[in-house]
Write a structure and sequence with these properties.
- By secondary structure, the protein is α+β, with helices and mostly antiparallel strands.
- The chain has one domain: Peptide methionine sulphoxide reductase MsrA (Peptide Methionine Sulfoxide Reductase, Chain A).
- The strands form 2 sheets. It has a 6-stranded mixed beta sheet, with helices on one face. Strands 4-5 form a two-stranded antiparallel ribbon.
- The longest helix is centred in the C-terminal third of the chain and has 20 residues.
- It is globular.
- 42% of the residues are buried.
Length: 219
Amino acid sequence: MLFGRDKSTMPAPEDALPGRDDYAFPIPDKHTVLGTPIQGPFPEGIEVAYFALGCFWGAERLFWNLDGVYTTAVGYQNGFTTYPSYEEVCSGKTGHAEAVLVAFDPEKIGYEKLLEVFFSEHDPTQGMRQGNDVGTQYRSAIFTANDRQREIAEMARDTYQQALNERGLGEITTEIEAAAPFYYAEGPHQQYLDKVPNGYCGLAGTGVACQVPLAGGPA
């Protein structure tokens, strides 16, 4: 709670914090593991995907370990406050989710594989929380960069829901929305679990693996 408000309820746009016109902190140039830039423009042929699956520290590590991923970064997405800070997002008054930017080479790894990791490695049935992390910033979401990604994401969600149904598990609450601006998080949060290998990671899956049929064509 903050000032009596439930942080698991999205704020109305008019109630969100006002934000600013630019970042209030510097953004690192390079990925500490991959050595690649974390800000675009990225090389020709590299595509970008965005996922929210709880605390972004552990979520980012899931993706940077995949062959074919060019770079990753953590940030704040699909909220109302422009250029927010971590403290502002944690207040529950910006509407943002903690998100991971994944820049990938579709010749080496498909969007379907990224979705398999997304659904398998967290619990997408928990609404505005992930484990003990409670609040709108921890919601499960796929922020799509184009119509093709949306089609594949919806197919993946429906396929995974069938698998959950067979195990008697709950309904998926994952949001699938067009990607709004991605605001990079502060430097200490980027590749946090590389800098702090034994740091906090609150992710836990359902125990049901996600298998996404190949859709064919670029995402």
